[in-house]
Design a protein that fits this description.
2 copies of one chain form a homodimer. By secondary structure, the first copy, chain A, is mostly helical. Chain A has 9 helices and no strands. Chain A binds a DNA duplex through helix 3.
Chain lengths: 205, 205
DNA sequence: GAATAATTTCATCAAGTGCTCAAATTGTGT
DNA sequence: ACACAATTTGAGCACTTGATGAAATTATTC
C-alpha cells in the first residue's frame, strides 16, 4: 500500500491544481486523503511544506531529463535546430502530462497556477532546478538569433511558456468549444505536443 | 468623490487579481477599501456578486469595441487579413491594459485567473458578452483556412488566448529574467502588443 | 422641515481555519 | 518478549471566515 506521505501529496496536488494552492484547506486534504488531522503537520509542517514536497517530488526528474536531452543535442554533429531546442523545454513536461496520467496533468496545471500568482516557494524551487538548463538554452538562443533584441526574445519566450503550461495542462480534456457548430474531437496527445512545439518555434523565430 | 460601489470594485479587482478570487477575504476588501463590514453585502450580496459586478463593469465595453472593429473590417473593400482578425481579439484588451493604467492590467490578470480555474460566474458572463464576436471570428477563420482541422485550430486558438492574457497582464512590468547576463529593458507597450499579434497570427497559420 | 428611503456602521453569530499536543497505535531492532 | 522510536489519532485552542440585522447616519422626496 502507498506511503502516507505520497497519499497526502497526491491528494494535495489534485486539490491544489483545481482552484489554486491557498483555496484548499488542510482539513480538505486530510479528509480527502483519508488520514487524520495531525499527520500533515507531522510530515510537512504545514501548507508550504506540502507544496515544497510536491515540487521536489517532480521537478528534479524533469531537470535531469532536460539536461540529458540537451547533452544529446550537444553531442550531435549538426547544430541543433530551433524546434529541437524547444523540445528540450516541452517534451519532458509533455511526457509527464501524457505518460503519468492525470497526476502529471494536475501537476502542470498546478505549475500554471503557481506561475500566475508568482508563488514564492515555487520561484525558489524552480530557480534551483530549472535555472541551469534555462541558462544554456537562452545562451544558445541569443547566439543563434543575434538579430533579435533581448527584450523581444524574452517576451516571446514568456508568451510561449504560458501557452505551454496551459496547453499541456488541458491535454486530453475537452477544451472550450470555439466552433460550437462543429463536433470537434479531442486531438491525439502527441499531436498536441507537436503543434505546441511548432507553435513556440514559429513564434520565437 | 468616487462612489462606494466603485471603490469596493476597484479594491476587489486589485486583490482578486494578485492571488485569485477565493483567497481574498471579504474583510480584506472592506478594510482595504476603507468601508465597513456590511456594505459589501448590502451592495453585492457576497463574493460572487462582487465578481459579477467587476465583470459587468468592463466586459460590455470590450464586446462593443470588438464588434465595432469587426464591422469596420466587414465594411472594407478587401477581405481582412489574419493579423487584422487577431487584432479584433487583442487590441481592445490591449487598450485596456495600456490606457486604463494598472486597473486595466489587473482586470486582465484576473481574467487569466478566472480562465485557469474555470470560474463558473466568469464563464456565464463571458459567453454572454463575447460569444457573438467569437462566433463570427471562428466562422471567418474556418472559411479562410479550410485546410486546417477543427481540432488543431481550436487548440491553437486556446494556446494563443492563454498567451494573450498572461502577456497583456504583465505589460509594462519587469518580467522574468531569462537572460540574466544582459540587462533587458521593459519593451514599449505597443511593441509588446504588436509582437503578440504577430505571435498569434503566425501560430494560427 | 418632516417623512421616507437609501446607505453605512458594528456587534454578533455559527462555521471553518491552521496548529499543537498528549495519548494511542504501530513499527523496528535486540 | 521487550524497549524504544516513529507514526497516527482526535480533542482542543485561538483565530478568521461569511453572513445577519438592528440601530445610526445620510440622501431624497414631498
Amino acid at each position: 500500500m502507498k506511503d502516507t506521505r505520497d497519499k497526502i501529496l497526491d491528494t494535495a496536488e489534485r486539490l491544489f491544481s483545481t482552484k489554486g494552492v491557498n483555496v484548499v484547506s488542510l482539513r480538505d486534504i486530510n479528509t480527502a486523503a483519508g488520514v487524520s488531522l495531525g499527520v500533515l503537520h507531522y510530515h510537512f509542517g504545514g501548507r508550504d511544506g506540502v507544496l515544497k514536497a510536491i515540487l521536489e517530488r517532480r521537478l528534479p526528474a524533469l531537470a535531469v531529463e532536460r539536461q540529458a536531452m540537451l547533452e544529446v543535442l550537444r553531442a550531435g554533429k549538426k547544430a541543433p535546430t530551433l524546434p529541437q531546442m524547444v523540445e528540450v523545454i516541452v517534451v519532458p513536461l509533455a511526457r509527464l502530462a501524457i505518460e503519468q496520467g492525470k497526476g502529471g496533468r494536475r501537476f502542470i496545471k498546478l505549475l500554471a497556477h503557481l506561475n500566475l500568482e508568482k508563488n514564492r516557494i515555487y520561484q525558489t524551487e524552480a530557480s534551483k532546478y530549472s535555472a541551469p538548463v534555462d541558462a544554456q538554452l537562452s545562451a544558445w538562443l541569443m547566439a543563434q538569433y543575434p538579430q533579435l533584441s533581448v527584450e523581444l526574445t524574452e517576451l516571446r519566450l514568456s508568451m510561449a511558456l504560458h501557452a505551454m503550461y496551459n496547453t499541456l495542462a488541458e491535454i486530453g480534456e475537452p477544451g472550450r468549444a470555439w466552433f460550437p457548430h462543429i463536433e470537434a474531437q479531442t486531438p491525439e496527445p502527441w499531436q498536441v505536443v507537436n503543434t505546441l512545439i511548432e507553435f513556440i518555434a514559429k513564434a520565437i523565430r
